[in-house]
User: Which sequence fits this backbone?
DNA sequence: CGGTAAGCGGCACTCGGTGCCACCGCCAGA
DNA sequence: TCTGGCGGTGGCACCGAGTGCCGCTTACCG
């Protein structure tokens, strides 16, 4: 339970991302992944419920981190709490950035992956909405809180997309984009 | 080209939604849909590239309508323009509401459909971002415009979700929710 | 009336995903 | 040491979505 994932799954994942990068996601069959990972096809599906999950798997860890980080934030301003939580989550070591880039690239331009990813984000949206409703004193289903939750996640997608579009952006640039997005959300989009 | 869809496709679609409602989306095979529509399986796939498209097909029409409505809006305030555009688009006749409800229900709770729908919404996001960048005088890739586009679509999803959750909400209620969501986006989420 | 093109649909195939089951290695307990 | 679970493995057969191919009908046009 302390081990987030077995060593074998890790190996499988690395080999798979390698193949996806070299020949494309759709062009790589599960059979190839299994063979390349030295494992039976059936076993592959025990580690990853779906071919998509090889790429998306870690998003769930991200959700857990988000929930935890949100809970750590004080105050009654959901924007400030969400901003701090996302900044806290998105601390990547320089060594992790290439892998992050590859993942984001896949998610960005394989429609199937983009689709599945946004479904995963639903839980993020709910978590943010619930947190905001709590801080505002709204009831759980409040439209404002729902809009907030979804808008925040949408903004973070925009941030990742913008960051990924700049080939040499580093971890600090990511933080700056997060700040910028939250500024916009906080201030609103009305013309002055 | 004037005819948005052939009569046969329309029949196919009605029969399919009927079956989805009565026995569920996943539990209905394309074979059944073809048989029920009095058409060959192969032909079914000529009308709908995917089983999902039976439910989602009309979203593309919605995009065209959105783009048109946005172009009709004057002024340099993207929020006002988007608000007016969405209000213009979402005029449903009372007779259409039950069908809309069924569609939304399916999209809401069949994950596969929710996933595919959000991919379709990418084009909406882009259209809104481009429009906003134009009105603000930002360049096309501006983060603020990207965030705006995505936040608007996210809000509209929240609106449809909220509307669908209230069984007896009518067309006016939908408009009111749209207003409320845009108010929040316009004002921003900062605490006073 | 003959020819041609477009829509139709059957057939066979690929690929992702699942249920079933046999097998292997490990660890208890007698 | 033998024996009986038990978890992980992976082969096999199957299902459903989606696609390419090809032969057929039908309707339109010279």
Assistant:
């Amino acid at each position: 339970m302390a081990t987030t994932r077995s060593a074998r799954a890790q190996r499988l994942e690395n080999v798979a991302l390698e193949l996806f990068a070299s020949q494309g996601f759709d062009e790589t069959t599960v059979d190839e992944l299994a063979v390349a990972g030295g494992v039976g096809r059936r076993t592959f599906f025990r580690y990853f419920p779906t071919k998509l999950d090889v790429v998306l798997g870690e998003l769930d860890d991200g959700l857990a981190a988000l929930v935890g980080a949100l809970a750590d934030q004080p105050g009654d301003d959901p924007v400030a709490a969400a901003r701090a939580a996302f900044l806290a989550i998105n601390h990547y070591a320089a060594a992790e950035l290439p892998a992050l880039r590859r993942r984001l690239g896949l998610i960005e331009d394989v429609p199937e992956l983009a689709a599945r990813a946004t479904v995963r984000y639903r839980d993020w949206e709910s978590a943010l909405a619930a947190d905001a409703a709590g801080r505002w004193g709204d009831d759980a289903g409040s439209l404002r809180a729902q809009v907030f939750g979804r808008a925040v996640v949408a903004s973070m997608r925009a941030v990742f997309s913008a960051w990924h579009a700049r080939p040499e952006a580093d971890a600090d640039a990511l933080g700056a984009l997060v700040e910028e997005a939250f500024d916009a959300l906080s201030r609103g989009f009305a013309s002055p």
